[in-house]
Amino acid sequence: MLGFSADEWTAIFLSLRVATVATLVALPFAIFAAYALARWRFPGKILLDSVLHLPLVMPPVVTGYLLLLTFGKQGAVGKLLYNLLGISFSFRWTGAALACGIMGFPLMLRAIRLSFDTIDRRLEIAAGTLGANPGWRFLLVTLPLALPGIVAGAILCFARALGEFGATITFVSNIPGETQTIPSAIYTYIQMPGGEAQALRLTCVSIAIAMVALVVSEILNRRIHRHIAVFE
After folding, report:
1. Which of 23-27, 205-209, 219-223 has the highest mean pLDDT?
2. End-to-end CA distance of the chain
3. pTM attached to this predicted model
């Protein structure tokens, strides 16, 4: 179909699956961390902020190696998860999702935190004077107003996950049908004699998916901004 081989389609669908799972799992943690960094004061805040942004500046291979040491079957956390729950991340697509989520997390975190920082707190105070407790203020006022940043952050994380290579291949290797995403497949094809056509097709697919994600993000952001303007 469309000139793609079965292996290419597998890499495409696996990339979409990994990127989607990585984004959805990372999103609630990013919202919580962004809100904490934007609104709370606590000891070690600067250190925590730096640690959460480390994947953004560290070589992806280093991140992947640390994941292997931590979540591999012989790692401190991975061994415990495998022995107690039978959960294994290394050399599985779930490990690829974990790696992609961690690599995209800082981008999501920054976008959402900036969105929280720009919210007019007088709106939250007004909701409080009307009897809303902190939980309801967050759900009904703060979270909706932060939606543009949340959407932008989720799209950035998704796009970053689609292009992730270094941490993924270090942590879960390059196993066709299990952990071979689009970047890994491209890397494989350019090493093969006559694989340039497959590599070019997957490159075009990767660009197309990224462009669609960015366009959808822009459309959603405009619609959300219009609704928020009406709300305000």
Report:
1. 23-27
2. 49
3. 0.87
